[in-house]
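Continuing from the previous page...

OK, I double-checked the sequence for Oxidoreductase against my notes and this is the correct one:
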Amino acid sequence: MSTRTPESAASTSPAARDPRGPGRPAPPRPHPAVAAGAVGVVSAIATLAIAELVALVVAPAASPLLAVGSLVIDLVPGWVKDLVIALFGTNDKVVLLLCLAVLVAALAFLSGLLEWRRPPWGTVVLGIVGVIAVIAATTRAGATGMWASPTVAGVIVGVLVLRFGSERLSAWIGVGSSGRQVDSRTAISPDPSLADTAVSRRRFLVFTGATAVGALLVGVGARVANAAAAAADTARRALRLPTAATPAAPVPAGADLGIDGLSPVVTPNGEFYRIDTALQVPGVDPATWSLRVFGEVEEEFELSWDELLALPMQESTVTLACVSNEVGGDLIGNALWLGYPLRELLARAKPREGADMVLSRSIDGFTAGTPLSVLQEEDRDSLIAIGMNGEPLPVEHGFPARLVVPGLYGYVSATKWVVSLEVTRFSAASAYWTDRGWSAEGPVKTQSRIDVPTNRARVSAGTVAVAGVAWAQHTGIDRVEVRVDGGDWTEARLATAISADTWVQWVYEWDATAGDHTLQVRATDNAGTTQGEREVPVVPDGAEGWHTIDVSVS
Ligand SMILES: Nc1nc2c(c(=O)[nH]1)N[C@H]1C(S)=C(S)[C@@H](COP(=O)(O)O)O[C@H]1N2
Ligand SMILES: [Mo]
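Thanks. Re-ran it with the corrected sequence; updated C-alpha cells here:
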C-alpha cells in the first residue's frame, strides 16, 4: 500500500474515494485479509525475536527455531531426506530452513486472519505452535525445564502483538467476522468518519510497523549471537586437548588435608569463581579465532587455532585471584592449566627496546596490561591457556583461549576470550580497569583465609580443626599462624604446597573451651613478608588485613 500526499490525492481516481465521505479521497485500504495476515506475521517475528533473546540467557540450543528444526530433521522419514539430499546436495539444511520459514509464515498469516475474523482462534493457533516448540526444546539432548522459557516468553509477547494488532485493524477497517459485518461491541468506530479512519489507519500502521522493525532488529541480533554461542559450544565439545609436552608434576600426597568444609586444593571447574564484564558470554568459534601479536615488535604475526594446538603444550597448576576479593572472600580458585608459554610467543615477536607492557585484548573489548618483563621470565609459567583441569576451557572461563599469569591479579593478566597481544608501554596505553580507578600494576598480595569453622559457627568444646588456605602466588607461603581472642600467635600445620604458584591448605588443632571466641589468621610468605593488621580496601590494588571470625563453643 502507498501513502499519498494531499496534492497527489487531488487527482485520485473515483475508485479510491470513500463512498461515504463528503467527496474527499479516502486513504487507500489494503485488502483487509492481507492486513490481518500481516499482523500474524509481525506477531510471529516478535515471538521468535523474544525467544531468541531469552535463549541467549538460558541456552543457545533452547531457541525454538533450532529445536523445531532439529525435531523435524529427526522426524522426517529417511526417503524424504534422501530425496532432498539427492535434489539439493549439501544445501539440504538450507532447504529445510526455507521450508520451515514458508510453513511458519503461512501459519503466522493464518493466525492473523483468524484472530481478526474469529478471535481468539489466532491465539489458539499460536498457542498450539508454541506447545509443539516447547516439546521440541525440552526433549533435546541435555535440555532442562528451563529450555521451555524462550518459547513461553516469545508466545506471550506474540499473543499480545496479535491481539493488539487485530484490535487496531478492527478499529480501522472494522471487525472481520465473515469478512463483512461490523461488530459494534469491539469496533471502536463501526462507521468511521474519514478523520477517524485516517487516525486509526495511522495507529495501525505505526503499531505494526514499529513492532516489525523492533522485533527484526532484536531477533536478528540475538540469532547471530546465539549462532556464535552454539558454534563455540559445538566446537568445545568436539575438541580433544593435545597432551602436554611438559606435564605438570602430580599433586603431591598431603596437598589436600581432606577436612570437611575446607576448600579442595584443586577447584573443580563448576565451582571456580567467575568474574568478567560480559553480560553475554562471548561465543567464539575456534575455526574463526586467531591471536594477533603486534605493536612494538620486530615481527608481527597472527596465530591460528590449528597453529596454537600444534605447539608443544605445557601444564601448570596456578591459583588465580581477583583483586576485588575481600579479606576472607571467595574470588579465588586453583586449577591445572594447559597452554603455551607466552614468553615463547613474545620471543617470536621480538619486542623492541623500551616496550614494557603487553596489552591483551578480549574479543569483547576488555583489556589487561601486564608488565612485559613478567611475561618474559624464564621461571614463570605465564600461559596462553586452552585447558582447565583436563577439559577445554569452559566457555565462561574464556574458551577457546585465555591468559594465566602466576602472581598477578586477574584484572591485569588473565584476559579471557583473548584475541590479541599488543606490545606497548605503560606510558602509552592503559587497560580496562586502570581507566576505572584501579592500579596499573597488580601483584597478588599475600593472604590467608579461615574456611572452617565458618563465621558465627557453634562448635563443641574439645579439639576443633581450624583450617583454611593461604596464598602468595609465585613467592610461596612460609608459615601460617592463628591466634585466639587476641592472644599469642601459634603456628598452624601447612599441607604440602603444589608449588609456589598455588595456594596451600593449613590446619590448626584448637583446644576449644566453652564460651565465645575470636579466631584470626595471618600468613608469612617466602620473601619474609607477614600480613599486617591494618585493613585496606580492595580498591585500588587489593585488600589487606587479617581474616577474623567469631565462634561460639559449648
Ligand atoms: N575478557 C575478559 N577477561 C577477563 C575479565 C573480563 O572482565 N573480561 N576479568 C578479569 C578478572 S578481573 C578476573 S579476576 C579473571 C577471572 O577469571 P575467571 O572468571 O576465569 O575466574 O578474569 C579476568 N579476565
Ligand atoms: Mo578480578
